[in-house]
């Protein structure tokens, strides 16, 4: 089983004493330059990092979990974190919480900082920029437990807690079709975000099943920010044959989309019906109220943490990665309830 590289590993490989390794890493003057160079080179190749809590961990553990999310301002992530904290407290663990602000570089820094002996495992939702997974693969090689939630990384064989995004988007699209929409657009997230891609898959499945053509001009990807959602919505409205239904990858972006429609005096849902995902509190406040897919956020957090702690406490090495797919619920409100079409 993989484990975190120690000074003893370096000493054994180079056939020198642990004291020599320690002095070389601390750049002590009594170490020969060639020895220091050999030590530093091996430490880099083996991804050795000093464990600042190594001494105390001989007698006790940190009982701390690292949590990394894209944006704490999102109700979805805040709610999942509540579930994480509840389960962690129940199991006797505390949290170190960081956010990436959807930036890969910040995610990389957060992982590096938290992995230097402070945490025993990670619960992570990837940033929208994250494509290179080397920083997370290093955690795996060190034997540090890792659980993904919400945003997947298919190439990594680790535990994951997700929702049925394909099924959720299928139901959302079917709902718009049942309410008379003929041209349904999809406002997607970045190409790199698996959640968005899964929802796009559900959307296309529903269109095909009900005999609709897939119009690529109605599928637009963009970053997770309000300005981009407004820009995309204006593009869709300006099409010669504009959509009469709109599925938006998240509530936050749907607010931007609806503001763009209102600015153009386009009636919701009479002219364009809107459905989105996450069922944030704002869905019940805006006018019209927003139809959205609700996710079991507390359950996501609790389950991800339970799986992580089970792996941390697995002393026999029998733990196998678990993938859990949870169900969602479409909460229908005013933004999508067009007049029923007579058969």
UniProtKB/TrEMBL annotation:
Q: Where is the HTH lacI-type domain?
A: 5-59
Which key words tag this protein in UniProt? DNA-binding, Transcription, Transcription regulation
Q: What protein name applies here?
A: LacI family DNA-binding transcriptional regulator
- Per UniProt, what is one GO molecular function of this protein? DNA binding
Q: Which PROSITE patterns match?
A: HTH_LACI_2
| Annotated Pfam families | LacI, Peripla_BP_1
* Listed Gene3D superfamilies: 3.40.50.2300, lambda repressor-like DNA-binding domains
């Amino acid at each position: 089983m993989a484990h975190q590289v120690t000074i003893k590993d370096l000493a054994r490989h180079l056939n020198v004493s642990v004291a020599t390794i320690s002095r070389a890493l601390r750049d002590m003057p009594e170490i020969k330059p060639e020895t220091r160079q050999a030590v530093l080179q091996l430490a880099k190749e083996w991804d050795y990092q000093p464990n600042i809590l190594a001494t105390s961990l001989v007698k006790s553990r940190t009982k701390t979990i690292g949590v990394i999310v894209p944006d704490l301002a999102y109700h979805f992530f805040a709610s999942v974190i509540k579930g994480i904290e509840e389960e962690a407290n129940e199991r006797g663990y505390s949290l170190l919480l960081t956010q990436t602000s959807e930036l890969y570089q910040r995610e990389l820094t957060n992982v590096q900082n938290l992995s230097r002996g402070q945490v025993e495992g990670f619960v992570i939702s990837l940033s929208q920029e994250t494509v290179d997974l080397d920083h997370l693969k290093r955690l795996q090689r060190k034997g540090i437990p890792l659980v993904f939630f919400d945003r997947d990384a298919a190439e990594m064989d680790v535990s994951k807690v997700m929702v049925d995004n394909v099924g959720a988007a299928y139901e959302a699209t079917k709902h718009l079709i049942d309410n008379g929409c003929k041209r349904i657009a999809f406002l997607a997230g970045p190409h790199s975000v698996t959640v968005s891609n899964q929802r796009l898959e559900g959307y296309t499945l529903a269109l095909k099943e009900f005999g609709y053509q897939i119009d690529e001009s109605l599928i637009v990807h963009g970053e997770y920010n309000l300005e981009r959602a407004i820009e995309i919505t204006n593009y869709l409205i300006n099409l010669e044959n504009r959509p009469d239904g709109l599925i938006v990858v998240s509530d936050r972006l749907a607010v931007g989309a609806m503001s763009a429609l209102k600015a153009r005096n386009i009636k919701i849902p009479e002219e364009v019906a809107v459905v989105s995902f996450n069922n944030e509190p704002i869905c019940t406040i805006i006018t019209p109220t927003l139809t959205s897919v609700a996710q079991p956020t507390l359950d996501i957090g609790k389950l991800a943490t339970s799986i992580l702690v089970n792996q941390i406490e697995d002393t026999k090495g029998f733990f196998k990665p678990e993938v859990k797919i949870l169900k969602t619920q479409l909460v229908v409100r005013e933004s999508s309830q067009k007049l029923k079409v007579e058969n």
